[in-house]
Amino acid sequence: MRRALVAFVVVALAAACTAAGPQDRAEVRVMVAGDPEELLAYRAVADAYAAAGGGPVQLLEIEARDALISRLSTAIAAGNPPDLFLLNYRYYGQFREAGALASMQGRLDDSESLDADAFFPAAMEAFRDGGEQTCVPQNAASLVLYYNAGLFADAGIDTPPDDWTWDDMVAAARTLTTDDDGDGTVDVYGLGVEPEIIRVAPFIWSGGGEVVNDDDDPRWLAMDSVKAAVALQAFLELRQFHGVVPTDEEAESEDLETRFLRGGLAMLMESRKVVPTFRTIEGFDWDVAALPRLGPEPVSILHSDAYCMPVDAAHPDEAWRFLEFALGPEGQAITAGAGRTVPSLMSVASSEAFLTPGAEPSNSQVFLDQLTSVRSVPNIARWPEIEDAVNALLEEAFYEPAIAPETPELIAAMQFATDPLFPGG
Amino acid sequence: MRSERRALWLMASPFLAGLAVLVAGPALWTAAMAFTDANLVGAPSFVGLGNFRELLEDPTFRLALRNSVMFAALAVPLRLVLALGVALLLARPTRGARVARAAVVLPAVVPDVALALAFTWLFNPLYGPLNAVLGGLGVPTPAWLTEATPARWGVILMSLFVVGEGVLIAIAARGQIPRELGEMAAEQGAGRIGTFVRVTMPLMAPVLLLMAVRDTALSLQSSFVPALIVTGGGPPPGATTYLSLFVYREGFEYLRYGYAAAATLAMFAVAASAVWLEYRVVSRWVSSRSGWSA
């Protein structure tokens, strides 16, 4: 009897010592989408987590960001969802309103390693539902202005200062738009910008207008105000009147990022995502500047992805443990090292891990400064449809002024196309 | 006799099982989903005919329907004529015919996505070889990706590139026509065109009908990859948004699977109507020519 008791205690102790080992932890399945540089960073985070004794992580990698929604929804429908996935706030409403996301508020409150106040508030707010944190942001970027410093110097123009106005930018873009060989074709365009609602919105806001009637309870597009119409008109004139952005054919033939890379574009409005590619530029210096202001105050637009957890995640505890690591100082520093994202954790964003002295862009601080005046588009369920409907009309008006309606009619067409897509529509 | 029938059923059973599991089952599931607000993420609710009512009022659906019908109306006859013409050219065992047949079939075995990427380059408005050649010949260079009409023709052109399978079927059908029939027609004074119209075509009609029916049904799907990858459904406003792309976006991008399922049923109805129409037209034409009834 005594022997049996001793044997039982020994076996129980051995089991207790081995059961908690990381190698026995369930594998966390994390779905991520992004370009190769971004995926490399996620792999590095997963490896570092495993090396730190966190346990195994299986990354479900999707190279085409567009395919994420379909892969994710079919995985959920098949009863085999990932334990965590990265989602942009503009697509988050679809999953939130379908009740597919587990609240992270309780875990965040109880967490010993994550503090909600340590993250950029604008990014946290974009993933909040009824006061509860549904997803925790992994990055917090915004729209900025990239510029080719060599072209500015050649033209004798000062590089964009902190307080640039829309008119300053247009004037510079006009000077920088050149036909160098005199063959009647523009060789260098002053500016590159996609005709999309997320590119126009910052200038509507800066000009004092609104995109929707109420950010918290959006019911219709509110771009029919004079201020919004003025901003929209100014945006359309970039192609229609000033001719400082590539034509439709040129934009279809060569994307703006490639055009900037080869020195055919003096300025480009983009988020942080182009930095890894632009760091391969050898022929000229480049940097980033804040978006110009159309009204009294500059405003930019939030670009943010967050880790979300489905309600029926197989291993929620292990997933949260990985999230704590990925969004902690070490994980965020690894992701920041790829250069593609702005960390959502303020301490890492303001550290050398992100600001990377000696590496371009030298003015990465602008990404952080803009986050104080950044705004978000609504994250309602049908927002992706609203964006697509508006973008189709906007693109036509931007490139085809001959057949496109005047700005007031364009705004009316946008409202007509999107009214049924808003809640209560 | 009974053992022969059993053997036939046995041989057909793998196909029938596949058909039931991969086609009939999902089709029934789709039909059921069309009456719900399914989004695959949450629990679906029954919405009756709500999705169909919404389709009727949806301008994007109407545009996609119109684009799909136009695509089928132009691409199917063109593909058929091209396949038939190439088949008649290559039907004779002349020198180099085998190489030519292989060259015609080859594009059909290239994955759709690879072909679409190749055409994205070919159609590039400024740097694409197609417009470079047309420009070199002094021919106007269409804005393939930025104007509605050239973009629509671009998608049709892509579909014409993959007629190899149809060519092979048509060559086989042509080979089944006894040579004596042609010789008899020639003896009775029929010229080449007369022989083609009165002998070759009526005898090939059942196969051509089959090809047309299959192509019509496929045309609703085959426009998907070019529209998704090459034109992105544009240029605005939705010049190359076909029903297949509409269904894909509603289901996989907007998570409106119930609505997408209703659009899929509408797509099925369009295909069935077109096939029925083709059947009626061809059978009447053939019976008026040769007494054959389809």
What does this structure look like?
- The complex is a heterodimer of chains A (425) and B (294).
- Chain A is α/β, with parallel strands linked by helices and 425 residues long.
- In chain A, 44% of the residues lie in helices and 11% in strands.
- The longest helix of chain A has 18 residues, at 2-19.
- Chain A is globular.
- Chain B is 76% helix and 0% strand.
- In chain B, helix 1 packs across helix 13 (257-290).
- The longest helix of chain B has 34 residues, at 257-290.
- Chain B is globular.
- The mean pLDDT of chain B is 87.
- The chains are: A alpha/beta (425), B mainly alpha (294).
- Chains A and B meet through helix 3, helix 11 and helix 19 of A and helix 12 of B.
Shape of chain A: globular
Strand content of chain B: under 5%
Mean pLDDT of chain A: 90
Major beta sheet of chain B, specifics?
none
Helix content of chain A: 40-55%
Strand arrangement across the biggest beta sheet of chain A: 2-1-3-12-6
Low-pLDDT segments of chain A? 10-20
Q: Tell me the series of helices and strands of chain B, N- to C-terminal.
A: HHHHHHHHHHHHH
Number of helices of chain A: 20
Tell me the β content of chain A: 5-15%
